[in-house]
Amino acid sequence: MNQALLQPVVQEFLKLNAQANPTKIALGKSSFTGITPSELAEQINSRQRAIIKWPSWNKVEGIYWPPAISVEQSSSEATANLKFSEYSGDLAIDLTGGIGIDCIELARKFKKVIYVEKNASLSAIARHNFTQLGIKNIEVRNESAEDALNNLPNANLIFLDPSRRNSNGKVFRLSDCEPNVVNLAPQLLELAPVVLVKNSPLLDIIQAQRELNTISKVHLIALDNEMKDFVFECTNGTTEVQILTTNYSKNGVEQFSFLAEQLHSGLVAYENPHGYVYEPNVAILKSGGQDILARKHQLNKLHPNS
Questions:
Q1: What is the pLDDT of residues 247-260, one digit of tens each?
Q2: pTM value?
Q3: What is the dihedral of CA 158, 281, 213, 295, to 10 degrees?
Q4: What is the distance between the alpha carbons of residues 203 and 158, in angstroms, rounded to a whole number?
Q5: For residue 84, how many other CB atoms are within 10 A of its CB?
Q6: Which residues pair with 211 in a beta bridge?
Q7: Which CB contacts under 8 angstroms, 24+ apart, belong to 171-175?
Q8: For residue range 160-170, what is the model confidence (pLDDT) as tens digits?
Q9: Where are the beta strands (DSSP E) in 70-214?
């Protein structure tokens, strides 16, 4: 984090050039000591990307815009709100804080939030932006999730969004992500009764259950029929797994839920279409629950995969 970028004169330049072409800025010259053209371009580029996902930041002065790659990988304000809509309490812990968008939403629902992030630059940026946004109930800790767990209080909820990249590139198994939530699960559930784990929509639900046997709920959240979040709720004493699908659209909220054990029960008839073809929303399709929906409403399918 380059503190020089927060100087009033630099902030004014960035404001005046908010709609400028970042490439053109990067290839130009910097008029500011200690600041390169690429740093100016990165601030402009990141802001242009970020205000689409975080519109409430648009008019806040003195924001330090995170790297563009971090903006791309973070939650939007809308999906962060949906993800934590049913949770509240005294204390929540975010063990993979990143830019802090999820932490900000947790801070609206819990009296206090502990933000943990091992990347020193990201944690410094998040600390600064929390202040600019007027958020006072987040405690920032710059350390790894594994180290933090040795010195954390009991909480109502722990949230993790493990990195799905390692030295070999993209990974999809929970045990290959960082931090390794499969190994940490017993320790996490000693600290909080509910642990939420966000993962890639490409992860197979059955595979996740095999790796993490404490899963009690699977939340599949779509916004305007586009998959946004795939979140596992883990608790002790799990006996059955609920799968909850939600699609938020301009026409309202579409919800469908079922038990995971139903995925392997019953058959669906196949025949040609009659008056119309119905396609379930993307959250239902991702859950694999389309056959359950078909049986419930006495619908026939065109083909096992259609």
A1: 988 888 899 999 88
A2: 0.87
A3: 140
A4: 21
A5: 20
A6: none
A7: 172/200, 172/202, 172/203, 173/203, 173/207, 173/211, 174/199, 174/203, 174/208, 174/211, 174/212, 175/211
A8: 988 776 556 67
A9: 89-94, 110-116, 138-141, 157-160, 165-166, 169-170, 194-199
